User: What shape does this take?
Amino acid sequence: MKPSPFDYTAPSTVGEALALLTDEEREAKVVAGGQSLIPMLNMRLARPGLLVDITRIPELGRLHVDESGSLHIGAAVRQARAAADTAVRNGWPLLATAIEHIGHPQIRNRGTVCGSLAHHDPAAELPAAALALDARFVITGPRGTRTVTAHDFFVATFSTAVEADELLTEVVFPPLPADHGWAFEELTRRHGDFATVGVAVVLERDATAGTVRTARTVFSGAAPVPVRLPAAEDELVGSDAGQQALAAAAAVALARLTPSDDIHATAEYRREGAAHLLVRACTTAWERCS
Assistant: This one.
């Protein structure tokens, strides 16, 4: 199919982009990589009157680590660029690995980090990674700029805290503890397919006690939004991430996760897969703790 007719413009400043988004005469959609939006246009699931290309706004192409050690990724930064960046790979390897699980190289070469987050497919890798890494989202609109936590950013399937007249300008990842380990796992039928279910894990090691000090476990594909399980984390904290603690955490995942049935998998299959992935991810994350 072909998209319905639309106009196209590429503003050079955030202010110009916001002015276009507040045009009441026609619906405007932001495009950067277009890896999610263009298929929706072709299938006429989206019919905007205007596409606002933000890739020519210089400040949105910035990727840097600030003085506090936080990573800033602008809205126009491609996924491939972020995954290959030395600072990202060294300081936030979970993020780099999650990006590498997205589709195929051609998609990552065009798709943007913020675009995937703003699109918010529940099966996508980056929303779960963002919640596991405690990311903050910087949203700019006609009422000013606000910062939203990952917990509050994802609202429902394909829905986020970004309003129609606002723009997600960057995502910020705080520095991770020195004694941390991480892992990202997902279950797919074939490489490059959308994941049936996935999990992102970050563990912090108490060097003195030799036990887990803090834990973050986040699942994708298990609900309309990324799901963090504090009850599973409680089973890990204070333990040596041994078999008993892992089994208890997996039991929590089986009991608490409530995925849906669809043409790809049953809810029971997703729960079983999530529990298995959690054990594997926690084992890997603990091994990576220094």
